[in-house]
Amino acid sequence: MRVALYDYGAGNLPSLGKAVESSGAEVSITSDWPAALAADALVLPGVGAFGPAARALPADRTALRKSLDRGFPCLGICLGMQLLYEGSEEAVGPGLGVLSGRVRRLGTRVVPHMGWNDVSASPDPLFEGIDRLVAYYAHSYVCAPTDPDSVLAWSTYDGERFPAAVRAGRCWGVQFHPEKSSAAGVRLIHNFVRLAGGAA
After folding, report:
1. How far apart are CA 142 and CA 177, in angstroms?
2. Which domain range does residue 110 map to?
3. Catalytic residues
4. Three-state DSSP class for 71?
C-alpha cells in the first residue's frame, strides 16, 4: 500500500506519517498532485489554514474530483476534512465540493477548541475495533453539511454539537487529529489503510 500525504507547505507531518507507516503502508509526503493521485490512497492532513490550503489544491480539479468520485480512498484530517466541502467562512476560495455544505466558525465562548473530547460514532468500518473514542481536537471551524446522513460521528464542545466524522463513498473526514489521539486514533488510521487496500 502506497499512501500519499499531501503537503500544503504549512507545517511538518512526521507524527502523521509515522502513524500511517505503523500500519505497514509506504508513505510519501508530496505537494505534487499527479504523484499523490498515483498512490493507492490519499491523506489530506490537518495542518494550516483554509485559504492557503485551498490555493494548494490543483487549479483544474477535474482529475482529483473524478478520482475521488470513482472511489480513490481519501482521509481528510481536521483542515483536510474541511477541504472536502464547498467553501469556508475562514477564507475566500472553493474547497473540493466532495461533500455538500460549508465550513463555519465555532459559535462557542472560547475558540479554538483544543484538547480531548468524546466522539459519539455510528457504525462504520472506520471505527472497527474502537469501543470508545476520546480524540484530540485543535480547531476553530466546523463543517455544516447539507446532508446529515453523511455524518458518521458527533462531538459537543461548550454546548455546541458538530460533526466529528463524515463520509462520502471511499472518502472519509475526521475533525479531530487521530495521529494525536492515542491507541484509538492510530487504530482508526490503520482501519483507513486497510479499507483503502480493499478498494485498490
Report:
1. 14
2. 2-199
3. 78, 177, 179
4. coil
What are the Cα distances from residue 165, in Å, to 1, 52, 155, 172? 24, 23, 9, 7
- pLDDT tens profile 109-149: 999 999 999 999 999 999 999 999 999 999 999 999 999 99
Beta-carbon-side half-sphere exposure of residue 42 (alpha carbons within 13 Å): 28
* Four-point Cα dihedral 137, 141, 146, 148, nearest 10: 20
Dist CA 172 CA 76 (whole Å): 6
**What CATH number is associated with residue 186?**
3.40.50.880
Which amino acid, 44?
A: L
Q: Report how far residue 21's alpha carbon sits from residue 38's, in angstroms, rounded to the nearest whole number.
A: 18
- Dist. CA 43–CA 29, nearest whole Å: 10
Indicate the pTM of the whole model: 0.96
| Contact predicate 159/148, CB 8 Å | no
User: d(Cα 47, Cα 11) in Å, to the nearest integer?
Assistant: 6
Residue pair 155/120 in contact (Cβ under 8 Å)? The answer is yes
The dihedral built from the CA positions of residue 56, 59, 60 and 62, taken in this order, carries a sign that is: positive
Q: Which residues have a Cβ under 8 Å from the Cβ of 2 and sit 6 or more positions away?
A: 25, 26, 28, 39, 40, 41
Amino acid at 164: A
Locate all alpha helices (DSSP H) within 73-170, ordered by sequence: 79-82
Query: Please, are residues 43 and 15 in contact by the beta-carbon 8 Å criterion?
Result: no
For the chain, what is the domain count?
A: 1
